[in-house]
């Protein structure tokens, strides 16, 4: 059984690496796949949180689990109802506004660094770059989709590499 677990771990790692490589070659398809799967993940996560709440409702703070589950179900319903185009645009808009917010914060940090007498130029430049990228994503969501798809593919690729490395390193556990 230990050897079987080890082989499954290694196979999973290789599948992740292959998926990451193909995702890097096809970032738009990766993004579309994510947009298709997101409402499904939200639905499953929401249902599991709502069900779990009924087992843990006596615990202090359990209502947070219920609220999280209900919000997941709400967003899953919104994404299912409005389709993949809406879901894709929502993902790009979310990422764009997150980048924009970080850019605005970065400008504030840069001015604070300048006021304190530290080097601030690079922080200011990167903050402006964040704002520019956010504007590009908002103006042209296809660019945002490709970029996000590439980022997802890299994340999967690196996760697979780390998993494979840990699998080889943990061979002693499965002996």
Which stretches are low in confidence, meaning pLDDT under 50 for 5 or more residues running? none
Largest sheet: none
| Estimated helix fraction | over 70%
Task: Please report the number of helical segments.
Answer: 6
Number of strands: 0
Please report the distance between the alpha carbons of the first and last residues: 10 Å
Summarize the structure.
With 175 residues, this protein is mainly alpha-helical. The protein is built from six helices and no strands. It has helices at residues 2-25, 27-56, 63-116, 121-139, 141-169, 171-174.
Task: Provide an overview of this structure.
By secondary structure, this protein is an all-alpha fold. 91% of the residues lie in helices and 0% in strands. It has six helices and no strands. The protein has helices at residues 2-25, 27-56, 63-116, 121-139, 141-169, 171-174. Helix 1 (2-25) packs antiparallel against helix 5, helix 2 crosses helix 3 (63-116) and helix 4 packs across helix 5. The radius of gyration is 21 Å and the shape is globular. The termini are close together. The mean pLDDT is 91.
């Amino acid at each position: 059984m230990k050897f079987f677990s080890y082989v499954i771990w290694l196979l999973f790692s290789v599948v992740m690496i292959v998926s990451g490589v193909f995702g890097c070659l096809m970032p738009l398809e990766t993004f579309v796949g994510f947009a298709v799967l997101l409402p499904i993940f939200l639905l499953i996560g929401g249902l599991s949180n709502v069900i779990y709440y009924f087992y843990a409702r006596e615990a202090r703070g359990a209502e947070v689990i219920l609220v999280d589950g209900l919000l997941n179900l709400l967003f899953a319903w919104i994404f299912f109802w409005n389709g993949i185009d809406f879901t894709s645009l929502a993902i790009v808009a979310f990422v764009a506004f997150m980048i924009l917010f970080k850019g605005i914060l970065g400008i504030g940090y840069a001015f604070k660094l300048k006021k304190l007498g530290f080097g601030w130029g690079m922080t200011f430049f990167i903050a402006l770059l964040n704002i520019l990228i956010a504007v590009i994503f908002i103006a042209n969501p296809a660019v945002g989709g490709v970029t996000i798809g590439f980022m997802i593919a890299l994340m999967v690729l690196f996760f697979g590499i780390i998993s494979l490395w840990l699998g080889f390193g943990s061979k002693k556990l499965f002996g």
